Amino acid sequence: MISGSASCRWLVCGAIAAASGGVVLALADVETPLRAPLILLSLAAAPAVVVAAWLKSLDMFARIVVACAAAIALNALVAESMLAMGIWSPRACLVAVLLVCAAGSVLRARPVRDALISHRWAQRPAQ
Question: What is the DSSP string of 64-77?
């Protein structure tokens, strides 16, 4: 029997794999009935997983609520920004959301955080 945290990890990994399939289908312009639900899954799950990874100090329910709200806000912000600039495209919106999520994931990585922190402290003037 799989423990609760292990089954949650498998669920997240399965959602990421399915969402990646949707992104590949969208960018390759493959017409299939699974394309729209998988793209919606990627637009909902990718930002939520990234935000949830940043919120380790909250309990599970609060993390889920905040991550879902942040995913909705990020998607709306990207779409609204693209509309305001006059460059709206569904593919470009998908790529922009995924690039923001990738940047959030990279900044979450320990070596990157350590490098940013040490660089910030090195530039402070001595008092």
Answer: HHHHHHHHHHHHHH
Domain boundaries, the chain: 4-122
Report how far Cα 90 is from the mean position of its chain's Cα atoms.
17
- Token representation of residue 19: 């969402």
Yes or no: say if 70 and 123 are a contact pair by the CB < 8 Å rule.
no
Q: Where are the strands (E) in 50-107, listed by range?
A: none
Q: What angle do CA 5, 9, 11 make, to 5 degrees?
A: 115
Residue 123 CB burial class (10 angstroms; 0-12, 13-18, ≥19) = exposed
Q: Name the amino acid, one letter, at 84.
A: A
How does pLDDT run across 42-100, given as a tens digit for each residue? 899 889 989 998 898 999 899 999 999 999 999 999 999 999 999 999 899 999 999 99
CA dihedral angle for residue 65, residue 71, residue 76, residue 78, rounded to 10 degrees: 150
pLDDT of residue 1: 45
